[in-house]
Amino acid sequence: MVICSHHSSEDVSDIMFKQLEKYCTDNIKIYYLIDKIDKINIPKKYEILYYDNKIKYTDRLYNSIKNINYEYILILQEDFIICNHYDINRIDEIIKIMKNSNIQMMRSYEAHGNQKSKKELTNYSISDKNYKIMEI
Hints:
Helix content is 27%, strand content 18%. By secondary structure, it is α/β, with parallel strands linked by helices. A hairpin with a 2-residue loop joins β5 (122-126) and β6. The longest helix is centred in the N-terminal third of the chain and has 14 residues, at 10-23. The radius of gyration is 16 Å and the shape is globular.
């Protein structure tokens, strides 16, 4: 799991850490992506990855996760507060769908913006890679 944050997010960080501690009870490696540590008290079990605020969001995200050695990565913003236990069987089911359909990225929320159809496959550029997105 990668949590994307910013040093100015101390207003939500404590709540987010408490909720993760409460609902994310599996042995999951958590990376905390941040520009700098200011007033945020990051739990010791999180691995901190720093990014450069001067580069665009997609590049800093890609540069941070490209060396994480997992086949699939769950990416959250610090203000995506987990409010319940997740179903690991459902996550496994989604990963199987992704593998079988050659899907490399999936959103768990409705994306707003210039969309032709919710079910349509789209190319989305994140730095020098193209990923397919499909809502299920």
